[in-house]
Design a protein that fits this description.
This protein is of the alpha+beta class and 128 residues long. The protein has 4 helices and 2 strands. The chain has helices spanning 49-52, 58-63, 74-86, 92-104, and strands at residues 23-29, 35-41. Strands 1-2 form a two-stranded antiparallel sheet. Helix 3 packs antiparallel against helix 4. It is elongated and about 45 Å long.
Length: 128
């Protein structure tokens, strides 16, 4: 999904509320030039609440087979895949299912520089 953030007017403060599951609503500019609000998922390393937050966490989203909330970027989705791969405290079947779920979930391609990173096999829990 290719979207651009609308430019912030000078001297404006933008406030974004992030739900415990890492979901926030942000303004995006569509390819047609319209500004719309979109839900995106962010990743903050080490926040376990992203996984099991009631209603907005990844586990509920996956188990309820809801349409996945797109990630802010490919890099953030990759960060979550690496985080899940390293979460050996999770039951193997849950970790495997979450890796598949996140690996198949969409992400936005905002006009922001993305940190290049090698793409590990998200289904290989032992990975590189």
């Amino acid at each position: 999904m290719s979207h651009r953030h609308p430019p912030d007017p000078p001297a404006v403060i933008a406030v974004h509320f992030v739900h415990p599951g890492g979901v926030q609503t942000v303004p995006v500019e569509t390819a047609e030039g319209r500004t719309e609000l979109a839900d995106i998922r962010t990743f903050t390393h080490g926040l376990h609440i992203h996984l099991d937050a009631p209603g907005s966490g990844l586990i509920d989203e996956m188990r309820d087979r809801r349409s996945p909330v797109p990630w802010r970027s490919a890099a953030e989705r990759l960060g979550m895949l690496r985080y899940l791969r390293d979460r050996t405290d999770l039951p193997d079947d849950l970790r495997r299912d979450l890796l598949r779920w996140v690996g198949r979930s969409p992400y936005y391609e905002f006009d922001e520089p993305a940190e290049p990173a090698p793409a590990p096999d998200p289904l290989d829990p032992m990975g590189p």
